[in-house]
């Protein structure tokens, strides 16, 4: 079993205001792809001036990612920011090669020569290398790491349809809410519950039940201990071992909503609550509502819910309008 990487949190509760980033503006103009990107990220109230999450949204080229830094103090923030910058720069370098002469880079078109899964792997391995080298130099320690959930949109030239290619390492997640279908969790966490399933200590059904519990009464004492340790991740970028990158693809349809989020969202909210918010809020405020509900949950008494967890909270929602 890989070593679990716990995210340490300060025990102090400063009274400063939480720093927030505004939502990303919608696409406008007929020449731009028909997607709306909604973004919200806030720092944990226990360290309101230091957000260890980092959110990447490159609207015109269809690259989206969330990173959740591990390591505490400044190291977690440096890890997530370093991975963010590395992935964006490598993505733009590759697009310049495939779109020579263009002043403005755009969402790439799929072709027989395009290997987007290989490209995602390249982006993440490069980010991992940068966290181990440049990130460690900046932080003054090699005890830093970050999760990643990353997605790119590609247009099929002949049909005009779009494909979402996505990858992740750690426990930042990607969800798909499609009309008239149950919401799908597209990623599986690299965490304690997955290891328990892999080692046949529990099965997937019970792992999901434990992960989605809201009160202690829903779990046995052993299951409650698993729940409380579920934030331990088994791998990350910059971690003690090179990451195993999980990569897949899915066609996206009009009306689809794709969510990328850090564990500050999905630890506080159940999948059912996330789905309700994705389906019931305007497309340009969905990320803000997810963070608001997560923040409210983090303030609830531990006697009311076992999900309450102060943390950095980040969400990006892509709404497909074509």
Automatic annotation (TrEMBL):
<dbReference type="Pfam" id="PF00481">
    <property type="entry name" value="PP2C"/>
</dbReference>
<dbReference type="InterPro" id="IPR036457">
    <property type="entry name" value="PPM-type-like_dom_sf"/>
</dbReference>
<feature type="compositionally biased region" description="Polar residues">
    <location>
        <begin position="12"/>
        <end position="25"/>
    </location>
</feature>
<dbReference type="GO" id="GO:0004722">
    <property type="term" value="F:protein serine/threonine phosphatase activity"/>
</dbReference>
<feature type="domain" description="PPM-type phosphatase">
    <location>
        <begin position="36"/>
        <end position="320"/>
    </location>
</feature>
<protein>
    <submittedName>
        <fullName>Protein serine/threonine phosphatase</fullName>
    </submittedName>
</protein>
<dbReference type="InterPro" id="IPR015655">
    <property type="entry name" value="PP2C"/>
</dbReference>
<dbReference type="InterPro" id="IPR001932">
    <property type="entry name" value="PPM-type_phosphatase-like_dom"/>
</dbReference>
<feature type="region of interest" description="Disordered">
    <location>
        <begin position="1"/>
        <end position="25"/>
    </location>
</feature>
